[in-house]
Structure formats: structure tokens, C-alpha cells
Amino acid sequence: MISAFLVLLGRPGVDCYCQHESGAAVLQLQFLINEGALVSASSDDTLHLWNLRQKRPAILHSLKFNRERITYCHLPFQSKWLYVGTERGNTHIVNVESFILSGYVIMWNKAIELSTKTHPGPVVHLSDSPRDEGKLLIGYENGTVVFWDLKSKRAELRVYYDEAIHSIDWHHEGKQFMCSHSDGSLTLWNLKSPSRPFQTTIPHGKSQREGRKSESCKPILKVEYKTCRNSEPFIIFSGGLSYDKACRRPSLTIMHGKAITVLEMDHPIVEFLTLCETPYPNEFQEPYAVVVLLEKDLIVVDLTQSNFPIFENPYPMDIHESPVTCTAYFADCPPDLILVLYSIGVKHKKQGYSNKEWPISGGAWNLGTQTYPEIIITGHADGSIKFWDASAITLQMLYKLKTSKVFEKQKVGEGKQTCEIVEEDPYAVQMIYWCPESRIFCVSGVSAYVIVYKFSRHEITAEIVSLEVRLQYDVEDIITPEPETSPPFPDLSSQLPSSRSLSGSTTTVASEGVTKDSIPCLNVKTRPVRMPPGYQAELVIQLVWVDGEPPQQITSLAVSSAYGIVAFGNCNGLAVVDFIQKTVLLSMGTIDLYRSSDLYQRQPRSPRKNKQFIAGLTELNDSPVPQELERCKSPTSDHVNGHCTSPTSQSCSSGKRLSSADVSKVNRWGPGRPPFRKAQSAACMEISLPVTTEESRENSYNRSRSSSISSIDKDSKEAITALYFMESFARKNDSTVSPCLFVGTSLGMVLIISLNLPSADEQRFTEPVMVLPSGTFLSLKGAVLTFSCMDRTGGLMQPPYEVWRDPNNIDENEKSWRRKLVMNCPSPSQEIGDHQYTIICSEKQAKVFSLPSQTCLYVHNITETSFILQADVVVMCNSACLACFCANGHIMIMSLPSLRPMLDVNYLPLTDMRIARTFCFTNEGQALYLVSPTEIQRLTYSQEMCDNLQDMLGDLFTPIETPEAQNRGFLKGLFGGSGQTFDREELFGEASAGKASRSLAQHIPGPGGIEGMKGAAGGVMGELTRARIALDERGQRLGELEEKTAGMMTSAEAFSKHAHELMLKYKDKKWYQF
């Protein structure tokens, strides 16, 4: 518990998150068993009392210690007095009902002997005796243990040991206790002979000769001593391993009789707790499970079986098994998907779990009224992809896919071409695209590859088809060239679709002296591969090295199952691949997509000039760039949107010199062309945000180490930032829709690519597909982020898709198989005019165009001083809207197609790259992002969801009947311990103990208590709320009083009956007959 938040877990589905506002780390937790409350101690020396009787836990009281630091807390069962140990060695007592400090204090100098000259150290343990509640066991760090009599206020006995103490636990009879020490030893002490330990063992120490002390081991941080009625006791501890095994992992040791079992953990142990059958400390404990909290996981060990298996965890504790690199969120998806993915994923789960039910069974889970299917997909640094069921506020892993299985394992010394692109994690997932209806899944990785997956319920063994694409086209701004020597633009015939290299850059020689060319970063398996049921690789596409320059990371990805086409782009250009015929349809540099209508009049790249003449980009006029404009530029797309940027991430503030002739030449526009804007890509800007050491590995997947291409050489590149397949109008004079690919760039340009598909379904497998730029251009401010289309009635149009069928189903006849396509075309109309709206959103603004006239109907400048990180068109309450998340923390919702602002909330400023990389919107007014390396934060901006959220939350507290304590018997009560009842109220109350010093601790009313409400609420509503709470409390007390009264009446009737029977038995007997 190293963070400021708490996670409360119960039965599967009961999962609650709450946080301390102070941000201080949580040190210890103490439940008020069967009372619906929890006490937390934080590192800022504050105690908090949480109310768990409501669906959203709230702090009722807080107690801030001013002069002493809290080190340990203990709350006896069915007691309202909390013992608090401090760093100074003192023990204070707190009333958990009022959260007021008692005047009763156990000072360290009174607990130890007067002859002791050294301070005993902080309090590391507090517990009352199972035998006598009036005796308190106090453990100090230096090895001193004091058995304190609370009534007489003196030490009954003291124990000294020469090794530091870490933890103590009682035997249930209260005659013995066990201590764990810093030398890896366990000592067992008897209260009758406190001068020396009754038994001393070093469980993991090497055995020595007689008379010699065993070898020291690592400290045993915690030990628990649990007894059983029908077997030997359990001794469970963490740590204590030998020092000679340096590479041993953290472990939990279970000693049961003579058997010693060591359970190695994947992460360091934070805390563990043994679950027992009884809450009473003076009974046989009968342990049945151990809950172990690790730094990055939670496991529960079954103690009832000899091999100690673990329970299958119903909570998503392994989200961070590998760092999350990207996320996707799908709400209201096809309902059968969750069942299908679960049925496939359950076959791949680990075996060896305990066959018993999950032992943590508290709380109750409510489904609520909104139970539509929700799926979350996470991509990870090791190349794995996980599908999660997120329905009804729960999270359960359904299916795991490993993309690295399609590649050969890299041997030592290999993979140098990959290392020049990324520092580590060559299989890291960068972008994912999923079509739930067709079940087509596509993923792009950091090593410049794209994998297309198809879903099948049958296992197959097949070879993986792979394609290599050369995509490299660099341009430079003109550096004072002579007008007559400027090379002409490429001929249009050379821009037809092909897979040839489009690079005009100079050759870079590798360190081995050989130019790297046509080499992919990873090697695809060439042998037949067994693919289990689930997602199976259909095609692998890899970008290759070109003339010594590595392939740039992919910045945009889109797939159309209806067209059978996958498109992806980076800062060099665009590639379009037919995954049905396994052919490359288009591999073209961005500048070639403009054909003869290049708006920026850039020329093919010439050999590199001396670097002293190259310094960056600047405006094409002589006016300086205002600092305000520089501050509001978008960051490097690599850091924010996953777009490829320069490896060195240098800024683009300095400028190149251009002559007046060049300026006039570049600003020479043809008819109908838009005015020239600053030709600076959003992909070559950067932002400075703090990155911690722990996050460096998470962000390493999108950094490049290549030094062959500097950021200055890439300043004029125009990255492909958004792709979208749709049935639309490619040109102004089109009267019918046709397959189109919308392409958005980092300069705010939108190009429409026309797709010419075979008309007959049978010809789709044999006839070629023609892909050609249509010549249509639209422009916006900032890099384009997303596209969407609406029909003339304002209804959102979904991209066309193919209905899923199992590609490996042997029951169907291949001849009768036909593709079932859902095209979602706009309804035909006899009226002349526009039939479709196209919504385009960039980092700065959103526009709505009417097609085919290409008229801009609505424009909304979303931000001027910041930039949009994530934007998407979502459906909420059967209406479409545009959702945007801004870098300044604002979440903005706009209506469609009018682009009227509906919501603008300052939610979360961009303080972490993880947030920018994982934030995503979905339908029904929801969004999510990775709030920490281990947790996903879901949020909603829908009022309907907020109204129903209370019903969807689980109940944390479900009262149950407290089990009765076992009857100790007359003789055991007479000789086994104190026969008098111990009244803590009389001893610790204000009447006898007095008031504590006000300077010692400060009481702070919490927002969940009546005191906090009195300060915050006012007027009639506040009075009504207070009256309602007081009435509820009064009703609860009356109910408890009624139950106690009924119990007393039943006892009285039973006593009367027994007394009458006894009277009748001895009524006629004489005195001498007794």
C-alpha cells in the first residue's frame, strides 16, 4: 500500500476505489468487523475512519497526530478503543466512535525498566492477550517486549532479545507468543519463563555444529501463528531466506508440522493476512487461506490442500503484467462477443488453481438497469493484447492474444535493425483497430509492422503470409535554388500504385559497412504454425529499410472488412494493402498523393546539404512567430497520439533562409487553391512533461535511437494521422456513392482516395482493385484526428462491414459460400442536392462538410491556446455527438452536425504521457484512460449513466450474524484466565482517564460525517438531511434495543422454565434426601 488510495474487494463484482485527499501513502488498515467501518493509517500521521455502510465510502472522522509519528495500530475484536503505537515508543488510545484521543497513555519510559539506558525504539506491535483483555502486549523495535497490565498501569513482565523485532503473534491460549527477527529467526516465548525464549529456530538457516549459532538469514518481516484443532499449527511468514541465494525471488513460507513449503512470488510482498474460521482470538483459529498482497498483484493461497494451490483471482490484477501501451473501448457491442471470447479464452487459462470458490465473499453486487455489453482492449509492451469484459462496472479478462508468436525469436546478437528503432520491447503494440461486427482485428507494432487477424473457432496449422512494403519518401524545403535548375515534379505515370521504393534520400552506411536495404525489423516465421481457436494471423505487413534508413513507426491504421483492405501511414506516406488477395495496392509518399495539385509546391528531396545550412522551419514571410502561437502548438505526435516523429525530438524553432524569388514562387497559387499556411507538421513539435524512472520503460516503445536521420531532415514531412473507410462521394460531380478512403495529414489536409472494387462478389478474389487519389482536398487547422459521416437526416452512418463467418468451418460448402456485406449507404433520393455530411476534427477545430458539393456548413474552433489529444464521434441517447479531450484537461462535447457546444468540463490536465497515450472515448457517454501503470480509470459524461450509477454500485457492507463464542467451561474459566470482565469504557473514558492534550492530536470532521455536513450544508435541505440521518441512526438503535430485549425475554423465559422444573423435582424431598 504505497499509494494514497484504497481498493475494497469482496465477492466477484464487488470492487470499490476510494482515495485520501492528502495523497499520503497508506500504512495500515483495520476493519471494524461486522460494523461497516474501516480505520486507515497514513504516512502523514493521520487516522481516518471510513463509513462502509454506503455505496460510496466516505471519511467520517480524521485524527491528525502533531508531535508523534504513527507506526502501528491494533483494534481488538468487538472493541471501540484503538491502540496506536508511535515512533517515540508511546502507546495512545483512540475512541473509534468519536475519534477522540483518550487521556490514557502508556509512555515508553514507564514500560521499560528504569535501569535501561537506551530508548527501545518505535512500537512495532500491539495486541491484547487472548487470555485476558486487560493485558496488552507491546513490541519495540530493539527486541524488547512488554506485557502491560492496563488496570494497574504497570508492566507485568518484560522480554529482551538481542535481535530487532519485526512482528509478533499469539498462540490462541494466550500462554505463548512468537516473534520474528531481523536475523531470519523465529523465537517462541512462554509467559511463565520470560528470561529466555522457549524455542529459537532459523527456518532457512544452514544447520551448524552443536554449540554454534545458526547462520543468519534475511529478516522475517511478518509471522502469523495459527492453531488447528485436529492438526499441527500453521506458522506462516514472509522473508527469512538465506543470503547466499542472491537471485531468489520474494517468498512466503508455510510451516505445517515438519513440512516447510516455500512459495516464490513474482513481485515483492507488501502484506499478507491469514483467513480463519473464527474472529475470536482465544479459540482454535482453523486457518483456511492466506491473502498475499504483492506490489503488483493479489493472490490467495488455499491452506486446506497439501500442495497449497492458489485461487483463481476474479479481479483484473494483471493489467500491468506488461506495461500498457494503448487502449480501445467498445460500448454496446454485439452481445454474443463476450460469450464467444470467454469460451475461447477459458481454454488457454493456467491450470492448477484451487477447485474451491473464491474465499473473499463480502458485499453484494448489483447489475443496475444499464447492462449493455462493453469490451476494453489493451495492448502491451511485450506484444500481447488482452480483451476485457467491462459490463456493469466490472472488469474480467476474456481472451489474450500474443502477437509475438508470428515472429521468430531473436537470438543473442541479432535484431540490430530493430534496436536502431526502439530501445527495447520490439513487439510493443502501438495501435489497434477492431471491427466487432466482422471480428476483423488489426494491430500495428513499434517495429513498423501490421498484422491482420481473423477469428475462427477451429484450430488450424498454416503458413503465415507476409508482405514487405517500401515506404520512404523525404522532401526538403528549397534552400535558395536557382529557378532554372529546380528539378521538375514527378510524372503522373510514375505515381500509379506500386510497391516500389519511393525514396529519394541519400544512402546511409551501417556500422558493419553494408547498406541496409529491403530488410524488415523482425523475421516472420516461415514454417507452418499451429494456430489455436481465436484470432489467427491472416497477413503480416512489414515496412523495410530503404537505402540505409529505418522504417518509420506507423501513425494511422484503418481496416475495412467489406472492402478487404487495410490502410496505414506514417510520416513518409501511405500504404494500402488487399488482405484478401495478399497484394500491395498503393505505396506512395505523401507528396505524391497530391499529384499535380501539391498545395505546398515541395520538390523531391535532393542530396543532403551541409548541416550548417539546415536549421528547421519558419514562416514563409519575414514576420516573426509570436510566442503565444508557439506555446499553443501541439506536441510531438509521437508523445501524444502515437505518431512518428524524429528520433531526437528536437524542436523546430530556428528557420531556413529563403530568397524572395523562392517565396514568390512558393506562394504562386492556381485558381481555387486555399491560401498558404505554415508548413509545419504537428509531428515535429514537442511538449515537456515529467517522466518518472518507472515510466521510462513504458514510453520506450515509441522512441527511436536511429541517428541516421535527424529531426531536422524530417521537418517538412507530412505524416498521415487519420484514415477512414466509407461509402461516400469522392468528387464534386459524383451522383452516387462509391468506396472511398479519407486520408488526414499532420498539416490539416484531407485527401479522398477512390477505391475501384470488382462489382461481382466472385471477382473480388481474382480481379485487381484500383486505388487512385481523386484530387479532392479539404483543409483544417492542425493535424487531423478523426472522421465520421452522417446522412441527410442527421443519423450517424457506420462504415460498411462484412458479416462474420468462420473461415475454417468445414461444415459449409465452399461453393455455396458468399460474402454477406452491410454497406450502410445513404438512402437514395430523387431530389438534387447533397446527401451526406462529413465530420472532420483536427487538433484545433472541427468542420462539417456537405457532400458531394464539398460545402463547409459548420466550423467550430475548439481551442486556440491548447490542442486536442483525442477526438471521436460517439452515440449517446440515440444521437451522435463529437467528444474531445484537450491537453489543458477539458472534456468538450459538441452536437452534430451543428457543432454546438453542449459540455465543457475541466476534468484532468495533461500531467502524464500515459494519460495522453491511453485516453479514448466510446458510445453511451463513457471514456477511459490509464490512471496508473496498474489501473484503468473509467469516466462518464452522461446524465443518464450518473443517475443509474448508484444502483449499479455494489453494497460493501452486508451485515451477518456474529458467531457465538465457544463456551470455555467452568474450570477453564476459573483456572484458565481472568474471571472478571474488562470494561474499557471505565478505564479509558474521560471520567477516569481525563482528556488528552489538544496539541498532541487534532480532530478533523470528515465529509461523510454529520460534523462535516453541518459545516458544508445549510438551509432547509441541510436540516432535512441531518434529520433523516439522525432518524436512521435512532431507528437503528431502536432496532438493536428491540433485538436485545427479545433476547433477554427469551433467556428469562428459559430460566423461569428451568427453575420451575427444578422446584418440582425437589418439592417433596426431605432435607436429608439432598
UniProtKB/TrEMBL annotation:
Residues 1009-1069 form the V-SNARE coiled-coil homology domain. GO terms for cellular component: cytoplasm; plasma membrane. Its main location: membrane. InterPro entries: Lethal2_giant, LLGL2, V_SNARE_CC, WD40/YVTN_repeat-like_dom_sf, WD40_repeat_CS, WD40_repeat_dom_sf, WD40_rpt. WD repeats lie at residues 19-60, 158-199. The keyword Coiled coil applies. It is a peripheral membrane protein. One of its GO terms (biological process) is exocytosis. Residues 482-509, 631-674 are annotated as: Disordered. It is found in: Cell membrane; Cytoplasm. Interacts with STX1A and STX4. PANTHER family: LETHAL 2 GIANT LARVAE PROTEIN, SYNTAXIN-BINDING PROTEIN 5-LIKE. Belongs to the WD repeat L(2)GL family. Plays a role in vesicle trafficking and exocytosis inhibition. In pancreatic beta-cells, inhibits insulin secretion probably by interacting with and regulating STX1A and STX4, key t-SNARE proteins involved in the fusion of insulin granules to the plasma membrane. Also plays a role in neurotransmitter release by inhibiting basal acetylcholine release from axon terminals and by preventing synaptic fatigue upon repetitive stimulation. Promotes as well axonal outgrowth. This is Syntaxin-binding protein 5-like. It comes from Equus caballus.
